[in-house]
Amino acid sequence: MTTETIQAPVTAEPRIVDGIVVTGEAMPVVEITSPMPEGREAREALYYQRGWWREETFLDDLRRQARLRPHKLAVAARRVKEARTDTLDYIELRQLTDRFAGGLVELGVQPGDFVAVQLPNRWEMVPLLYACLRVGAVICPIDPTTPEEPLRHRLGLTGARVIVTMSDWEGNPVGETANRLRQELPGLEHVVIVDGTPPEGCLDFRDHFIDPVWEDVHTDLSARERGPDEPFVVLFTSGTTGESKGVLHSQNTVHSAIRGYVDTFLLDDHLVAAVTTPLVHYSGFGQGILSSVMLGGTIAFQDRRKNDILLDLVQKYGATLLYGPPPTLHDIARSQRAEPRDVHTLRHVVTGSAQVLQPLVDDLREMLGARTYSLWGMSENGPVTITKLDYNQDWAAHSNGRPIDAMEIRIDKCINPTERGPVGRLRVRGASQALGYYKRDAEYDALLLDDGWFDTGDVARDDGRGGIRILCRASDAIKRDGMVVPLAEIESMVNRHPKVAETTLVGPTGRVEDPILAVVVPSGDERPTLEELRSHLLETDLDERFLPDRLEVIEALPKTLTGKVRKKVLRELYGEA
């Protein structure tokens, strides 16, 4: 581990150009206005009127597709290690949904019960999602890499009656962990193992869910199905600032988000979506599974992170849309350069979770022949802003886009939330907003301001087109001469240095006047120096005052289960340095 320190220079009054704060004339205040009526009841009536909320459910979508296009491919699930792909058409997906629903009834699952599903990207996740809808259960998706303590918290908080998990995943005995928790948590009655030998007291997934013809036993479950405004999924936050919270959504709050997503890109039943993100996260089950079935399209995914072979799925199934975070897309573009595949069917490459830079947009256009779109969202509301079709092809490198029709955004001055500004705290409101945090009402209510505006905890700037560019988390903000340092963008720039595999910027003590500390994971044996990083950033025309003041080189960044950097841990490590 190495440490370097340097004093930051002081320069003239800054402005913002293409997402970068530079010196010069001040940027005028631009207010992002609200097109929706005031008052919750009036807004909810509008949500139904405009079709963002509906009386139908996601089960109705599945039934419609099974009727209209029964033998169309719905799911292509590649198992990388086994070198095979499992497929389901719509009639098979409908049948397995009914069968799995009967299996849940046999386990004693009642409407309102929680069912935890801790799986990688496997085909079983898809009918299990719809089976929970069929019996009125609330599904609790959990990453298979979740350690024991956060798993205990999630299962205990929800009182999950059933968990469907693996015997082993990437060397972790997840089945044994779940079984140990079953003996500890009074609400957890059943552990079902998808692959491998179940531990004593656990059920085998095939024996219980696949082989019995439960749909002939439980023929009418319609009375169990919950309405579109009732809770149906709980998603746990990353827990970067403390214990993770369970975000509760109804079918309508999710429908409005994915409706805005598919409408933005004018998607229809020709959609073939190649999804790289976990199906247990919002982007995987929302923009992936639910969007595809709603339209009658196809979703393709693989169970392991092998980005170098993901384009094989694109070629085989003629994917029209590719979704993934920027690091994954960098790998995919590099793979295409090394081993070209036929990807002429691709129309859209959609990315989120990190800032997009121009070199990535250029690489994806050159290598995949597709246009790149950037979006921003969170578990509490799904995709909120997207760079739209009427933006130019490079705008994803300068903006996170405008809000979908069902959502409103505004930027409040950090020091005075009653005033608007070009840079400040991002707040959102609309049809996609979550119902709340499960058993954490006070924490959720504390984030709601006047008439339903939700504090996202992010600092953003106006992009000049009614959209936003995310700068950083408010809790991580560092200022220079009163201006917020665009940490997210600078991190993305540092990541382009050839000696850098990954980086994050942090204030060592969490104060806005902190020096800018760059914590870097090297890409090889040769470690970058602070001066090399500063010179690299100056080539991007970054204002000198926003250059890193210190450098720490470490082997790996501490992260949450969803891949977010735990900056709190880094402050504890380097706050006294």
TrEMBL record:
Keyword tags? Ligase
Q: Where is the AMP-binding enzyme C-terminal domain?
A: 489-564
Molecular-function GO terms, alphabetical: acid-thiol ligase activity
Q: What start and end residues bound the annotated signal peptide?
A: none
InterPro entries per UniProt: AMP-bd_C, AMP-bd_C_sf, AMP-binding_CS, AMP-dep_synth/lig_dom, ANL_N_sf, ATP-dep_AMP-bd_enzyme
The AMP-dependent synthetase/ligase domain, residue ranges: 62-438
Top-rank taxon: Bacteria
Q: What is this protein called?
A: Acyl-CoA ligase
